[in-house]
Each structure stands twice: as structure tokens, then as C-alpha cells.
Amino acid sequence: MRRLFGSVRSRATLGATLVVVVALVVTGTAVLQALRSNLTAEAGTEAERKARSVASELAERTPYDELSGLDGEAGPVQIVDEDGNLVKAAEGLRWISGTATDEVSPRPSPSPSASASPSPPAREDDDDDDDEDDEDEEDEHETEDPDDSDEAEESQDAAEAAPSLAPGETSRQATYGSGAATIGDETADYRFAAVDVRTHERGLLTVYAGAPLAAEHSAVRTALTVMLIGFPLLAALVAGMTWVLTGRALRPVAAIREEMAAITASEDLTRRVPEPATHDEIARLARTTNETLAALETSVERQRSFVADASHELRSPIASLRTQLEVAAAHPELLDLNGAVEDTVRLQHLAADLLLLARLDAGERPVEGRVDLAALAREEAAGRTGVTVDAETAEVAGSRGQLGRVLGNLLDNGRRHARETVSVTVRREGDWAVLGVADDGDGVAEADRERIFQRFVRLDDARSRDDGGAGLGLAIARDVAVRHGGTLTAGAAPTGGALFELRLPLA
């Protein structure tokens, strides 16, 4: 499992597939919820329409047996009074839930306690009798039964507690609920709507009418089936496309890796990785890799050349010193002590130069400090014949020892090529300190003014090694200048010789 998901291709495919799956699940859930809500609302609207149709007929004093919405074909319908008793139900209704009552048949109404007495026949009397009758009626109204008064008060309280609907008026708002009902032999889920209506004879009634939710259930099941089939297929398609596209995008990376492995195995730094003809991150990676390989090749070649030249330069003084020692061992009287000392000193200087170059190549940073180039120039020029100094104070940041080594190498080089004098100048130019070393010799040809800073380079091939150096002095001087944030260049002096200028930022 770790190996399977250890590649970028696998992780990208898995991540993209998970994101798509989560998005599909969230979207599918939202769609199903919205679909169910919309279809349920439509069923509620249909149920309200049916309930209001029945309520309108009741408000118009239509008899129960003549109501058009109770034939059973329009769905379950109940008419309930204020006490929750079923007054009328749709034909064929056998079972119901989700309304105020689960009754499907009205209860038989109680028999009347007493029948009404027939009215006596009208008779003609005189005016006195009429007056007497009127007086008797007034007396009867004045002497009401206390029980009749209590019943009237209770009726008034019930009327005040009932909804404020006038006779023949239906409620504007409907209430909704969900339930089920059985009509005939079919049981189904319904969305019920309840509408209140105040009738003239039975008072406040509530009409419950239901609309089937079969369309809602069918649509939701269909959508869910489509999602259960389509979502896995879509996720598989996304995974496949991501796998293919990621593999195609990472194909240059695989080629780069294979070429790098071949370069490592063959140690051939001249080879380069293929660069795709695109402008994306992989193309930039390939170009950066080739630049790194080029820099590494240059560094390795430089190191090999350095090792070869150093071995060659060390071989001469060591061989000379060994010859002198072997001759001295066989013939002590022939020992050239001064020559042995010179070879030893030359060998010591060469070893010191090689060690300094090795430290510079390793990236050794100069020790931070303040160095006055004017004082350093006077110090290095002291004791050297034919050297003049014209310097103004200019402080720079860096290593006094390394900068002294630079000035010493420039003075040694100038003294070897000068006819008579070497002049040292120090001046300030803006934010820079400029140290110049000029001689009155033959100078340096313009084509060679950069080559002389390469290691082990000698312009005068006929010059003996005893008279000249190993060709490391100017290379060391430039490396130290660069490490201090400055430059070292070669040019022509006003006297016709060579001019070396060291530029360093002022402290």
C-alpha cells in the first residue's frame, strides 16, 4: 500500500478522485433534498386546492351527500368538527394517519331528547285578549330560566375561543402535514392540507385533503438510482483521466530522472537531461538541472586541472630538492645549501598558495574587520625597492591578512615585470575604494588581460620557473577580491606598463 501511494501520480489521482467524490456526494444530497422539498410543496399545494374546494362548498351550504370532493377519486378527505369528531369522509377510505383523527366513518349522532310540540291553531279574540297575550309574552321574557342564561354564556365563550371566521368564510392560511391513507385496497403516502371553514349549521369545521406523494417518491428514487450508477462511473472517469494526464505530465520528469541516473552511473558530466518544449515548472526544472550539470562539469574540470597543475608545479621543487640532497649525501662538499633553501622556500610558498586556494574554493568567508588600505599599502611597500606610495585614507570591511596577500601578490608581480619603479595609489571614488598598482614594464596585451587571472597561467613561457612564480598569485588576488565584494582588473598604466586596480566597497 505504501509503495502504491508512494508516487506523485498515485497521490494526485487519489486526491482528485476524493475531491470529486466528496463534491458529488454533497451536490447529490443537496439536489435530492431540493427535489424532495419542491415535489412535497407541489403536493401540499394540490392538497390545499382540494381542501379549499370542499370548504367552499361547505360555506355555500352544500349538503354532505352532494360534496364533489368526497367520491374517493380525488384522494382522502376528512371533515372534522371543533371537537375533533369526524363529520364526513371520502368514499372508500379505510385507514388514515397524519390528520386530527384516524376515524374513517362518522359516529352516529345521538337521538333527540324530546320532539317538538305542534303549535296550537290560531284563534280570533278581541283586542283585550291580544293585549293580555302580549302582556303574558312580556312576562315570560322577563322571567327567563337561569339555566338558559348559563348555556348562552357558555356558547358565547366558545364563540370567542373559536377562530374569528364569519359564517360562510374559510381560513386564508392552511396547515400541512404528511401521513398515509388506504382507499379501497391501495395504501399510499399523502401530503395533507387542513383548511378551516365556519358553516351556518354546524359551526367551525376543518377539511383535511390529501395529495399523493407517489410522484415525489418516484422522482427521488429515480434521481437516487441515477446518482448511485452515475457517480461511481464519473469518479472512475475522473480517476482514469487524472491518472493518464498526470502520467503524461510527469513523463518529462521520468526522462530527467533516468538521464540523471545514467549520468551518475557513467560519471559523464558532458551529458544533459532532455528539456521539454514547454514553459511550465518541469521545463524550468530541466533547464536548472542542465545549468547545475554545466556548473558541476566546470567545477570538476577546474579541480582536475588544478590538481594536475599543482602536481606539476610541486614536482619541480621537490625533484630539485631531492637531487641536491642525494648529491649532498654522496658528496657533502658539493652541497648547494643556498639552492636547497630557495627550493624549500619556493615549495613552502607554493603549498601556502594551494592551501589558500583550497579554502577559497570551499567558500571560506573573510573575517570581518576594518582595514585602512592606505596604511596597508605603506606597510606592504616598506622594504621593497623601487616602490612608491601615494594613498589617501580609505577603510574597507574584510580580512587584513587576505587583503595584504592581494597587495603583496600585485607588488611581486609588478616588481618582476617593472624596469625601474612600481607605484601604488589609493583613492576614493563615491562608495568605492580604489587601489592601483602600476609598473613601467612592457605591460599586458589586451587579449591576455583576462587570461592572466587563470590559475597556473604564465605569459612568458621562456621565463624560468626560478625567476617567476607558479602562476597562482593573480588568481588568488582576484578570488580574494570577489570574496570581499569587489573586483580586480588589468589595464594599461600611464607609463606604458601594466595597471592592476582593486575596487572594494567602503566600510
Question: What does it look like?
Answer:
The chain has a 6-stranded antiparallel sheet with strand order 2-1-6-5-4-3. The chain contains 9 helices and 13 strands. The longest helix has about 55 residues, at about 215-265. It has about 500 residues and is of the alpha+beta class. It folds into 3 domains: about 1-105 and about 160-260, no CATH class; about 270-365, Helix Hairpins, CATH 1.10.287; about 365-505, 2-Layer Sandwich (Heat Shock Protein 90), CATH 3.30.565.10. Helix 1 (about 10-60) runs antiparallel to helix 4 (about 215-265), helix 5 packs antiparallel against helix 6 and helix 7 (about 375-380) crosses helix 8. About 50% of the residues lie in helices and about 15% in strands.
